[in-house]
Each structure stands twice: as C-alpha cells, then as structure tokens.
Design goal:
The chain is of the alpha/beta class and about 220 residues long. The chain is about 35% helix and about 25% strand. It has a single domain, classed as Vaccinia Virus protein VP39 (Rossmann fold, 3-Layer(aba) Sandwich). Helix 1 packs parallel to helix 4. The relative contact order is 0.17. The structure holds S-adenosylmethionine (SAM). S-adenosylmethionine binds next to helix 1 and helix 3.
Length: about 220
C-alpha cells in the first residue's frame, strides 16, 4: 500500500507536466502508434458506451467521444479530471480504483467497453479493480487494456513479475518523484485476467513501425 500511495502522490505532483506533454503530443511511442492502436481496438467493437478508467487528462475519452461513443472517464487526480472536462464531452468522476472496488462510486449504467490505457501501475489495486469490472460491463461487453509490452523487460534480463524501479526517463527533468510499479510477465497477465473473471483473451502486440521493437500489448477480453 505504501507503493500505491507513492504512485498517487507522484501523479498529483506531475499532473501539470503530464497535461503539457500530452497536449504537445510529446511521447514518441504514443505519437507513432500506441494512441492509434487503442482507439482502433476500441472502435472495432463499435461500442455505444465506454468507460475510460485512469483516463488522465482525457485525450482518449475525447477521441472516442468524437467517434460517437458516449463516454465516462474516471481518474483519481482532480487536476487531470478538470482538464478532461475542458477537453471532452462526457461524464467525469474523480475516483480511485479503490473507490470503484468498494462501491463508493457507482456508475449509473453498464458499459459496452471498459478501456484502460497505460493506467494499471500497482499490484493490489489492479487485482481488485479487474475483479470488480465484470459487473460494470453490459452483456457481451469488452475490457480492453493497453500496457507496456512485457517483453520490453526481456531486453534488460529482468523478466520476472514484481515491483520495479520506475523513472520518467525521456519525458523531461520537470517530472519528479519517480515511483515503483508492478510488472507482470505475459503469462501472469493472462492468469490475472482469467482469475479476474475474463476469458477469450485476445492479445495484440503493438510494435515500433520502423524498428519492430515491442512497445505495448492490448488485451481484449469478455467476462465469463
Ligand atoms: C500513464 S497515465 C495514463 C492516462 C491515460 N489513460 C492516457 O492514456 O493518457 C496513468 C493514469 O492512471 C491514473 N491512476 C493511477 N493509479 C490510480 C488509482 N489508484 N486510481 C485512479 N487512477 C489512477 C493516474 O492518475 C494517471 O492519470
């Protein structure tokens, strides 16, 4: 739980930096491919409604709203939600994953899609959140998660699930308070999704368009 608090403290401290870098399209992998990959993956299912969990400053919520999807966004950082409300039309809630799990916040409808884009960082809150999500999906609804490609840690000979040192490398010195994050191998991701009540797990690898370096994976699955 100490790590979970540090993660939220860091996002609170870096919210303005994050808004600036996203507004300026300043992260290369996102610009090149990962943004489009998650938008296309969500849209391929033609949902009428979607919930963007850990929505940050709302870029994805906006993209999906612009494609005609009725959007709800949730994030624990008030400054990010404030920016999301300026940017996108939709329902926005300041809430943590723990609030979703405990029922402290309640959604007024079920969603055709729940999307989580690079926002599962800790261990316990991720496990609890994923187990709680099936109840918020409409029949036939899908969960889509984009996360760092697990194989990126093979390149540094550290392919073992566990807490890892984090950094803001490449994003600029204005970012402070790097935090530890919980890494899952590909096998552990699949086990976690299965344990959380999801099946038919489709895995899409997102590769750098020139170097073919693995950048992210998108898991797409439905509740049992
Ligand atoms: C890397 S950002 C991704 C934001 C957005 N999904 C995107 O694609 O730009 C991670 C987000 O997860 C949110 N987050 C992390 N832990 C959270 C928690 N326990 N409850 C709610 N939001 C959380 C952070 O506030 C941050 O906005």
């Amino acid at each position: 739980m100490v790590n979970e608090k540090k993660i939220i403290d860091s996002w609170t401290t870096n919210a303005a930096n994050w808004i600036e870098i996203i507004d300026n399209n300043g992260i290369e992998s996102r610009r090149l491919i990962t943004n489009k990959a998650i938008v296309d993956a969500v849209c391929s299912n033609k949902p009428a409604t979607a919930l963007d969990v850990g929505c940050g400053e709302g870029w994805l919520t906006k993209e999906l709203y612009d494609k005609g999807i009725e959007m709800t966004g949730v994030d624990v950082i008030p400054e990010l939600i404030e920016r999301a409300r300026e940017k996108a039309k939709g329902d926005f809630l300041v809430a943590s994953y723990e609030d979703i799990v405990s029922g402290k916040i309640v959604f007024s409808k079920l969603f055709d899609t729940i999307v989580i884009n690079f926002a599962l960082i800790a261990k316990e809150s991720t496990e609890n959140l994923l187990a709680a999500l099936p109840r918020y999906l409409s029949p036939g609804g899908k969960l889509l998660i984009q996360t760092l490609h697990p194989f990126s840690r093979k390149a540094i000979d550290d392919y073992k699930s566990g807490w890892k040192e984090g950094s803001w490398d490449g994003l600029g010195e204005q970012f402070t308070l790097p935090y530890q994050w919980y890494f899952c191998t590909l096998e552990d991701w699949l086990l976690l999704l299965d344990r959380s009540g999801f099946h038919s797990i489709k895995v899409t690898e997102v590769l750098h368009p020139q170097s073919a370096k693995p950048l992210s994976v998108i898991f797409e699955c439905t509740p049992h």
